[in-house]
Amino acid sequence: MDTVETHTATLFFVGDRVYKIKKPVNLGFVDYRTRQARLAACEAEVRLNRRLAPDVYLGIGDIRDAAGTLHDHMVVMRRLPDERRLSSLVISGARVQPQLRAIARRLAVFHEQCQTSPEIARAGGLAALQALWLEGMMGVEPFRDLLDGEVVDEIGRLALRYLDGRAALFAERQRAGRVRDGHGDLLAEDVFCLDDGPRILDCLEFDQRLRVGDVLGDVAFLAMDLERLGHPEAARYFLDAYREFSGETHPASLEHLYIAYRAFVRAKVAGIRDHQGEPGAADAARELAAMALRHLR
Question: What pLDDT, on a 0 to 100 scale, did the predictor assign at position 37?
Fold first, then answer.
């Protein structure tokens, strides 16, 4: 049996199954200290992830002791081959253009099907984006020394400067229906390139407010991650393919804004992992902050 730790869960890989148990933690943006909260999170994870991987998320299992007393819950998943992860393929130097096109096509269709509403559309407006960046700045405050306070301040200044005066751009994106309840956490390690098409796992289930937004923010997350893996050309190819399949029109600067935001969010996550003692997390946090700054300049 293999185990993998994240900041919110422990995953157990047993045969052809994966069992994911939520940690009883309170990280501010999630609070899983009660069994009821963990059950709700499991239910949301299965429901939302079945949108892109219905044959992977099999359901929810109960954890009971020998006497039958219920103690906790877990997400039960079909195990997929590690060597078919997009991250593994990219790192190995494999040719991934066909897979990136398939992922872009799948996401374009997915985004057309994703829920939208006037309330969801507000998440793509100027005020909401300003609030997200300001909240992000507050979220990295515990990691200012790790990330370099001057870098953090420059990221915030440039991001807010970009947002100022672009209310019309964001309003047009809202009117065009480009703001949806999407994935929210598109990482290359959670995309599996199978013979019958991609399976995209592990959407952001714990906070709809962080999951909804401009569809460009969704695809920018994966572009950011491909760049983090050392392949900016793959990121560019993927973004261009998504533009082709979705009929997207947007200024290139908007791509940079969303890539920067996704890198900034991941820098905070890496900071949390560093505080939890994960080796290499500090360097990863600094690299992500540098990426965010690079895309804002």
Answer: 95
pLDDT digits 0-9 by tens, 247-272: 988 999 999 999 999 999 999 999 99
Over residues 117-147, the pLDDT tens digits come to 999 999 999 999 999 999 999 999 999 999 9
Domain with CATH 3.90.1200.10 in the chain: 82-296
Please tell me the predicted confidence (pLDDT) of residue 52. Answer: 97
CATH class of domain segment(s) 2-78 = alpha beta
CATH number for the segment(s) 82-296: 3.90.1200.10
Task: Look at residue 276 in the predicted model and tell me its pLDDT.
Answer: 87
Instruction: Supply the DSSP string of the chain, one letter for each residue.
Output: -EEEE-SSEEEEEETTEEEEEE---B-SS-B--SHHHHHHHHHHHHHHHTTT-TTTEEEEEEEE-TT--EEEEEEEEE---GGGBHHHHHHHT---HHHHHHHHHHHHHHHHHS---HHHHGGGSHHHHHHHHHHHHHHTGGGHHHH-HHHHHHHHHHHHHHHTT-HHHHHHHHHTT-EEE--S---GGGEEEETTEEEE-----S-HHHHEEEHHHHHHHHHHHHHHTT-HHHHHHHHHHHHHHHT----HHHHHHHHHHHHHHHHHHHHHHHHTT-TTHHHHHHHHHHHHHHHH-
